[in-house]
Amino acid sequence: MSVQFNEGLAAHLASRLTTVCHAWAITRKDGVVFAFTDHDRPLAFAGFEFRADTGLSALALAQSTGLSVDNSEALGALSDVSLREDEIEQGRFDGAEVRAWLVNWADTTQHWLNFRGSLGELTRAGGGFRAELRGLTEGLNRPLGRVYQKPCSVVLGDGACRFNLSQESYAQTLAVEAIEGARRFVWQTFEPFDVDWFTRGRLEVLDGPAAGLWGMIKSDRNEGAARVVELWEPMRGLVTEGTQIRLVAGCDKRVETCRLKFNNFDNYQGFPDLPGEDWVVSVPSSKGTNSGGSLR
Q1: Does 168-248 match 7-141 at the fold level?
Q2: Per CATH, the architecture of 168-248 is what?
Q3: Is 94 left (phi over 0), alpha (psi -120 to 50) or beta?
Q4: Which residues form the Bacteriophage phiJL001 Gp84 C-terminal domain (predicted)?
């Protein structure tokens, strides 16, 4: 959150006649930027070109100086030139960065960043949408710390795992041969990977309307002479025959998989020797000698 108030804007707001409006910039995780203003003419400042009368209009903004979560809502219209329904449905706006300014449209050097956060839940109805805006303190509203459990607690290939997924034996790029129900992919010709090699992995779309989207792989199996890869959920974008995709090997978080499949045991983030429930409920035996050894 910006704490510096533009002195020129402060003087303007103190005058009897003001010419102010709101401006919004949305930056998606894929780098695409959308900028809007509720003024009737386009504006340019802070490195953005703000479109007029498209995109967003703000409701009440609740902010605080403590650690409570700042929140707001914004309303908008769906259109091909601003925020499209299919892109919202595909999740391309999930977690996008949002910045909002109060600006003097007669002199855009007078502007104040009065909100910064991210997009939360988006709902669509009647050709429009309602967006939940979450402030920077939202990050304080989630639990942090390690989980003590037998399975590994990190994501394959991330900074804690450190495994290099670009190796040829752990991923392959190929074209879609057949697709059923946006979730079942079938190939008659397939690289000689072991069955279940890609189970719990990722299917990433590299081109076409769904480029940049990915899905979690539920199963990877042989059906006769065909190789079938099935997702947990249908792809939210259009994937057709010939679309280039990338299959990434899966990990079931077990220590045996980390050691034998990925040869990455040094970075295993689970606790395989953690005692189980049987050990916790074990009690000394009333028979025999209780020497301090195993209770079994």
Answers
A1: no
A2: Beta Barrel (2.40)
A3: beta
A4: 196-278
7-141 CATH pick, 2.30.110, 2.60.40, 3.30.1150, 1.20.1250: 2.30.110
pLDDT tens-digit map of 199-211: 999 999 999 989 9
15-24, 29-38, 170-179, 268-277: range with highest mean pLDDT: 170-179
What would the mean pLDDT of 178-198 be, rounded to a whole number?
94
Taking only the tens place, the pLDDT of each residue in 60-86 is 455 554 545 456 666 665 555 567 778
Please tell me the pTM assigned to this model. 0.70
By mean pLDDT, which of 26-35, 73-82, 280-289 is the weakest? 73-82
